[in-house]
Amino acid sequence: MSDLNLDKLVKFVARGDGRTDSTRAFLRAWSAACKSASPANVDIQRGTYLVRTWSFNGHCRRRIKFRIDGTLSAPANYNAIGNSEFWIMFYKVSGLSVYGSGAINANGHGYWSCRKSGGSCPQGARVRM
């Protein structure tokens, strides 16, 4: 099984510092896993990874295990996601396992405050698997 672990994610410039945008690193890691001729693991180690809108698309060649032990964190300012319908999306991917002891933090406090106050807020993004 091919492993795309923290070493490779760091190579792709993913930093678990909660401030550095790691979106491109995760997209490159996904692309490598999806194209792999053997089953692949994408391991997100401990740390907080700031990620903007992304879509992980299939049809991948082999099965992928996507392990989240860190935290995937949306930008605190919900406007950074724009009018995207989804924040994180896995699309047309079969043979995918998503697991781990980590978390997915949409940082929705500002968004929900806007909605409660009747402000002009975007529709809101979702995670879709």
Any overview of this molecule?
With 129 residues, the protein is an alpha/beta fold. The protein contains three helices and eleven strands, in the order βαβαββββββββαβ. It has a four-stranded parallel beta sheet. Strands 2-4-7-10 form a four-stranded parallel beta sheet, with no helix packed on it. Strands 5-8-11 form a three-stranded parallel beta sheet. The model has no long low-confidence stretch (mean pLDDT 83).
Task: Describe, in short, the structure shown.
With 129 residues, the chain is α/β, with parallel strands linked by helices. It is 21% helix and 34% strand.
In angstroms, what is the radius of gyration? Answer: 15 Å
Tell me the span between the first and last alpha carbons. Answer: 23 Å
Give the helix level as a range of percent.
10-25%
Strands of the widest sheet, in order across it, are 1-3-6-9
Spell the H/E element sequence.
EHEHEEEEEEEEHE
Question: Low-confidence parts, pLDDT < 50 over ≥5 residues?
Answer: none
Per DSSP E runs of 2 or more residues, the count of β-strands stands at 11
Task: Using brief descriptors, characterize the structure shown.
129 residues; alpha/beta; four-stranded parallel beta sheet; 3 helices; 21% helix; 34% strand; globular
Topology:
Blueprint: E1 2-4, H1 6-11, E2 17-21, H2 23-35, E3 40-44, E4 48-50, E5 54-57, E6 64-68, E7 71-73, E8 86-91, E9 96-99, E10 103-105, H3 109-116, E11 126-128
Parallel strand pairs: 1-3, 2-4, 3-6, 4-7, 5-8, 6-9, 7-10, 8-11
